[in-house]
């Protein structure tokens, strides 16, 4: 049974920022006391996790943060993380070139890449989803969205959704096993259908999951994050995000909108030009050349029709 309905989520997303802060800090405190203080904030250096860490440390100043140094972060993000105290740095076991060689390129979306990967391995369910069918072979309105990407089965390069698992999740899981510190994560339901469904099913504090996680900002929106940063004046990675300004009644950043891994291609087909790679060509030419030419991401983007030249 789901913890919340979509209507519940819509109501919470419409709450004023003050109430969201209060509820989020309550969830953080519940998580902290449930595990006797042995918790850690998953800190990417991005604006969402910066807000999460600030709220957590207002309640518990000694709380640890964990940063996974994948080698794919914007250099401005890494420099910002270095300025934040009490952060544990982790590294993945495989570098990104080895991940794409072994598993495949992260293109289109996690859901699509996962189905391409398993369909190529002969999984019937993946083939059926790419054909717009349910597991039993009946038509599925839910799976119709995968049909347009079926052509990727013939792509001359590997494709999968394993990059995030290997580069980010596995180092965090190892840290949790070694220390017992239960993670607090800054993901929000508005970011993807997967995250929305996870929140509707589990709520903020998923104590009952096989690998329990706290996601106390799940009902926040990006406007809340920007408003929090502007209102509190706390430091954030302004070197990459730029300043927070208002345009047409909404808060925006003058620099990058999202950060994350520089070479990730998930969602690039949905972006207006200049997209993330076109901007990278101008702002980070060395990383752009490595990504597009040496790693072969340019060929993958060509295959799905995403421009990348500045």
Write a structural description:
- By secondary structure, the protein is of the alpha/beta class.
- Helices cover 45% and strands 10% of the residues.
- The chain contains 14 helices and ten strands.
- The strands form four sheets. Strands 3-2-1-5 form a four-stranded parallel β-sheet, sandwiched between helices. It has a two-stranded parallel sheet with strand order 4-10.
- Helix 4 links the parallel strand 2 and strand 3.
- Helix 6 packs across helix 7 and helix 12 packs across helix 13.
- The chain starts with 5 loop residues before the first helix and ends in a 7-residue tail after the last helix.
- The mean pLDDT is 96.
Oligomer: single chain
Distance between the termini: 48 Å
The side-by-side strand order for the widest beta sheet comes to: 3-2-1-5
Number of helices: 14
- For the secondary structure, the number of strands is 10
Global mean pLDDT: 96
Low-pLDDT residue spans: none
Order of helical and strand elements: HHEHEHEHEHHHEHEEHHEEEHHH
User: Gyration radius, to the nearest Å?
Assistant: 20 Å
- Shape descriptor: globular
């Amino acid at each position: 049974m789901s913890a919340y309905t979509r209507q519940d989520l819509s109501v919470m997303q419409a709450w004023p920022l003050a109430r969201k802060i209060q509820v989020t800090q309550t969830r953080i405190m519940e998580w902290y006391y449930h595990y006797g203080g042995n918790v850690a904030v998953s800190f990417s250096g991005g604006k969402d996790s910066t807000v999460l860490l600030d709220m957590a440390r207002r309640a518990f100043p000694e709380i640890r943060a964990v940063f996974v140094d994948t080698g794919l972060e914007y250099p401005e993000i890494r420099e910002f993380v270095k300025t934040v105290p009490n952060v544990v740095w982790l590294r993945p076991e495989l570098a990104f070139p080895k991940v794409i060689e072994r598993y495949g390129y992260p293109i289109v979306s996690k859901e699509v890449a996962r189905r391409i990967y398993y369909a190529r391995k002969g999984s019937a369910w993946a083939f059926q989803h790419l054909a717009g069918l349910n597991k039993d072979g009946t038509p599925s309105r839910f799976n119709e969205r995968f049909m347009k990407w079926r052509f990727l089965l013939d792509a001359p390069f590997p494709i999968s959704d394993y990059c995030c698992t290997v580069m980010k999740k596995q180092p965090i899981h190892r840290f949790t096993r070694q220390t017992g510190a239960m993670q607090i994560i800054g993901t929000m339901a508005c970011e993807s259908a997967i995250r929305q469904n996870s929140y509707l099913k589990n709520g903020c504090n998923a104590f009952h999951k096989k690998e329990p996680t706290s996601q106390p900002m799940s009902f926040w929106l990006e406007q809340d994050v920007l408003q929090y940063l502007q209102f509190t004046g706390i430091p954030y990675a302004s070197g990459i995000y730029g300043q927070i300004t208002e345009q047409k009644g909404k808060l925006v950043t003058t620099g990058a909108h999202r950060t994350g891994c520089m070479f990730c291609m998930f969602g690039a087909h949905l972006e207006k030009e200049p997209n993330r790679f076109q901007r990278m060509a101008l702002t980070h030419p060395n990383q752009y050349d490595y990504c597009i030419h040496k790693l072969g991401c340019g060929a993958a983007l060509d295959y799905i029709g995403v421009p990348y030249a500045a």
